[in-house]
Amino acid sequence: MLFLFTQKTFHTMYAFKPHIIFLSLLISSFISFAQDSPNFFRIGLIADIQYADKADSKTRFYRSSDHKLQEAVASLNKEDLAFTAVLGDLVDEGPKDLQPIMDLLNQLNAAHYQLLGNHDYPKVYEHDLYRQFDMPHPYYTVEKDNWQFIFLNTNELASYAVEEGSKLERAYQKLITQVKAEGRSNAQPWNGGIAKKQFKWLKRKLKAAEREGKKVVVFSHHPFLPANGLETLNSPELIALFVKYNTVKAVISGHHHPGNFEMYEGIPFITLEGMVETVDNAFGYMDIYPNKLIIHGEGRLTSRELPIR
Fold it and tell me: Is residue 61 left, alpha or beta, with left meaning phi > 0 and alpha meaning psi from -120 to 50?
């Protein structure tokens, strides 16, 4: 019955029955309560800050990312966030420029969780790099209400991330050889993939989430779809896994600064616009409901309303 009342209806009713104002206030209170209920919460979204203390390069404004992030933090702090997800490439040339960015992220009122991007790796291999980025593990989960957020490490098998002579380096060489043999365009030095151990971990998490009735959002740095040369090296196997488990409601990534989107088998694959790209800012937040996701974009970040399967 509430949906039959429009703003015009209320204005007309006010003219003749002032006591109806009480009903209007009651409905407003109901809506507010619905948004504050356990069935609704909000998370922040940031991708590809890619800060560096160096000159700009074509459409990338490295030093400006400091000021853009300040603006994003101030804006996100006005929202009631459960947490903010930062989807990699916090810096452009490894952790030497990281501290100013971490200082700003630590000014967020809510918790922030990040994952590594290809630009976060230094030129020389560093063991346990994730610790410098205040991450609990190279890949991990965060839970809120009946939702599970999976933060993947799509850099695990990459030319810039594996130690020379290691088991992971051999696995990377095998994977990149396979990708090239298949003629796929993503066999590039800035792309990475997931090793068997992490794949098995992901499968266990999805299986458990389905058994427990939890809904899952997957975060990654490298996207999976659309296929445009920037996707995760072993994306076909991972996409098949996401589709298999109905518990996966969305996959959200960074890496491709212009942003992208594809709906596949009922799953929205979203690539967020990168903060470093162009003079305009890019960040936002996502409202999470039982039956839909709503992304509110600021600057270049695209706003979307997505039904979930």
Answer: beta
